[in-house]
Amino acid sequence: MKEHMKLSVSAILFMLAILVTTTAHAVRIKDLASFEGVRDNQLIGYGLVVGLNGTGDSDQTIIQTQSVVNMLERMGITTSLNTIKVKNVAAVMVTATLPPFAKQGNRLDVLVSSLGDAKSIAGGTLLMAPLKGADNQVYAVAQGSVLTNSFAFGGQGATAQKNHPTAGRVPNGALIERQLPNTLVGKSILVLNLNVADFTTASRIVTAINDKFKSSVAVSSDPGSVALSIPEAYSNRAVEFVASLERLEVKPDVSAKVILNERTGTIVMGDDVRISTVAITHGNLTLVIKETPQVSQPSPLSTTGETKVVPRTDLKVEEENRRLMVLKEGATIGDVVRALNQMGVTPRDLLSIIQAIKAAGALQAELTII
To answer: Which of 57, 141, 258, 348 is the most core-located residue (most Cβ within 10 A)?
Structure first.
């Protein structure tokens, strides 16, 4: 009885291991694709950072001086460009990202970057800066204290600097004034765009969605998108429809690729990389030539003889003893790595070996060198 229970428990554990293995690579649809029209929008604006301790733009930069004059005139203070000199002000560019479905009154983080020759904008305050989109409409207004997490001090003889003092962030510094239109309202067909176009992945997404709703809801005409018809049961409930399908899990299919970085010696290979039958040997021939001249001179107080330089050359030749390794057809990436490790190759050597295998036509994968 105990042996039967042990076998049953072992069988259950084995089945659980199989289930975990088969579902480990499944990915949610929301992580594989995004809906057409549901995207971020970039915002940009120009502003002034004030309150700097003499680290602002110099007098040679006229941008911030002109901006200060214009700002004071809008506040009813008349001044001239030739009579004003400021060192505590820096002209900056302000950028932010407006997420989809952001509502009026929400806040955004903004990035502030120096436009002139300011030494540092640490400790400064960003004045009200309108942020515009690609349509030249103002969508947000930014203002607040700039955080750079850096410092820069110095004199004529020495300087000290930490991180990058001419760029910083204003957390929650932008207030949204205009919201984007809702792209899901009034639509009967939604388009799901894959992050990486692939025929197999698109087909699997279509199958998973149609199995979920028991009807032909999804159809794909190209490997980069899937068209979805909103069922009648979800009419006027597009949010619930999207929420019900984006949680579906699909196993994405990826192409076999090998990425080589010759500068750093980094090698990344996918699990689907295969090798045809090929024989590999790799060795280095090292030739060392060392000149050690010797001086021959007569004995002290000798009346005959002369000093001569006698050349001496040490020649050493080293050739590594490497075996010929044969990889059979259909070898996986694990087989390749184990075989090459047995040969004692380094990552630099592996770069040359993989390129040679690809040149021989034995590497069944896309080779990308960056």
So the answer is: 57
